[in-house]
Amino acid sequence: MNSDRVATVVLMGAESTGKTTLAASLAKHYNTGWTPEYLRLFVDRKGSLPDEEDVYAIAEGHLDQVASLRSEAHKVLFIDTDLFTTCVYQRIYFSKCPPSVEHAAKRHQSGLYLFTQPDIPWVPDPGQRASPEERLRSHALLIAEAEIHALNIVPIRGNQDERLTVAIQSIDRYLAMD
Questions:
Q1: CATH no. for 3-177
Q2: What is the CB neighbour count within 10 angstroms for residue 89?
Q3: Residues 133, 111, 77, 177: is their CA dihedral positive or negative?
Q4: Which site among 8, 72, 80, 119 is 20 to 30 Å from 33 CA-CA?
Q5: CB of 76 closer than 8 Å to CB of 112
Q6: pLDDT score of 177
Q7: E-assigned strands of the chain?
Q8: Taking the CB of residue 64, how many other CB atoms lie within 10 A of it?
Q9: How far is CA 71 from CA 9, 91, 173, 176, in A?
């Protein structure tokens, strides 16, 4: 399929809300690809948390990863977080997000966001996750971000099977509109 005709679906949500697990399950169900969270890859490669100026490399790496995997996707590409999430976390840790990254988030906005809810147990991940309380704060800020940009969100909650069922139903409706 022409990569210009590949729809994107973003998994958005606070840390430890099942985005990666759901992205992998959806890619398997639709026989297509998915992008892992680029920030996680960046932190693993760097060996430490990002500095304020790393946001440019993170944004560029995310966009390059999506472009690369989009060309291999079939009909839909699942993206584990996008630049809107990068902007939220940049504001959490550094008080502001550069306007160029904010604009890139808007330019690369997806047509569908599966918004994972913090209704599953929090799992510690040293160097990547702060705390269950911080997860709730991040969740509230991500909701606000989605509302500001009028993102087309579908709340995803429940156990793994319930999450997958709601996600598939939502994606099928979204793809039928395309």
A1: 3.40.50.300
A2: 20
A3: positive
A4: 119
A5: no
A6: 87
A7: 7-12, 34-35, 76-80, 112-116, 153-156
A8: 11
A9: 15, 32, 23, 21
- Between strands 76-80 and 34-35, the pairing is parallel
Phi-psi label, residue 95: left if phi above 0, alpha if psi -120 to 50, beta otherwise: left
Do the Cβ atoms of 23 and 73 come closer than 8 Å?
no
Q: Using CA atoms, how far apart are residues 58 and 23, in angstroms rounded to an integer?
A: 20
Domain ranges of the chain: 3-177
pTM confidence score: 0.92
Task: Determine how β-strand 112-116 pairs with β-strand 34-35.
Answer: unpaired
Q: How many CA atoms lie within 13 A of 23 on its CB side?
A: 24
| C-beta atoms surrounding 65 within 10 Å | 16
Beta bridge partners of 154: 114
Please report, in tens digits, the pLDDT of each residue of the chain (178 residues total).
334 589 999 999 999 999 999 999 999 999 999 999 999 899 989 988 899 999 999 999 999 999 999 999 999 999 999 999 999 999 999 999 999 999 999 999 999 999 999 999 888 776 655 777 888 999 999 999 999 999 999 999 999 999 999 999 999 999 998 6
Token couple for 30: 């639709």
